[in-house]
Design brief:
The protein is an alpha/beta fold and about 180 residues long. It has helices spanning about 1-20, 40-45, 65-75, 100-110, 130-135, 165-175; strands spanning about 30, 40, 50-55, 80-85, 115, 145-150, 155-160. It has one domain: Glutaredoxin (3-Layer(aba) Sandwich), CATH 3.40.30. The protein is built from 6 helices and 7 strands. The longest helix has 19 residues, at about 1-20. The radius of gyration is 17 Å and the shape is globular. Residues about 1-20 have low confidence and may be disordered.
Length: about 180
């Protein structure tokens, strides 16, 4: 009987360890937007219960979603949601300079969630995190695609038209946080 209990406990422990492992593609440092400081995506992923990664652009019809992303961040950060914005010019709507991108994010929209340096999000030059997300769902087809990664590693993609506080995305967030 003791062997059965020990084996069961080891199996549960292995499952928990696997569930909380960070995808290798996230084990990378990205420089924070218009900063010399870095952020490690695995550290962010393992610090919360869920991560929302969004490819952003400063001059897009969806740019006003920064306000909704900030609201989502403020509403759920203390419950375990980590929001990460990744500016990209893959769709030719991003500021040329990080200074310009920072102005749009921080001054125009009051963003306080993590914003990273500019990065490619699709194609052969896609950042490894976005290549991984595309392999699990699909590559971004436009700006403001949202990828929700739960602590068990499940990835759900929400398109540009899904607003951050849209019931479909927000419901998935609350479910992932077990609220």
């Amino acid at each position: 009987m003791l062997k059965l209990i020990t084996a069961t406990l080891l199996l549960v422990q292995a499952s928990l360890t696997f569930a909380s492992e960070c995808p290798e593609a996230f084990n990378t440092d990205m420089r924070k937007l218009h900063s010399k400081d870095n952020v490690n995506l695995c550290e962010l992923y393992n610090s919360g219960k869920a991560m929302l990664i969004v490819n952003t652009a400063s001059h897009c019809g969806f740019t006003k979603q920064f306000s909704g992303l900030e609201s989502l961040h403020k509403k759920y950060a203390d419950k375990g949601l980590v929001v990460v914005g990744v500016p990209s010019n893959d769709f030719k709507q991003e500021e040329k300079s990080e200074e310009g991108t920072a102005r749009v994010c921080y001054q125009n929209y009051g963003v306080t969630f993590v914003m990273t340096e500019h990065a490619d999000v699709k194609g052969k030059n896609a950042h490894p995190a976005f290549a991984y997300l595309a392999s699990k769902t699909k590559a971004p087809s436009w700006n403001f695609n949202k990828y929700l990664i739960t602590q068990d590693g499940t990835v759900t993609q929400f398109g540009s038209r899904t607003k951050p506080l849209d019931s479909k995305l927000e419901k998935a967030v609350t479910k992932s946080l077990a609220l």
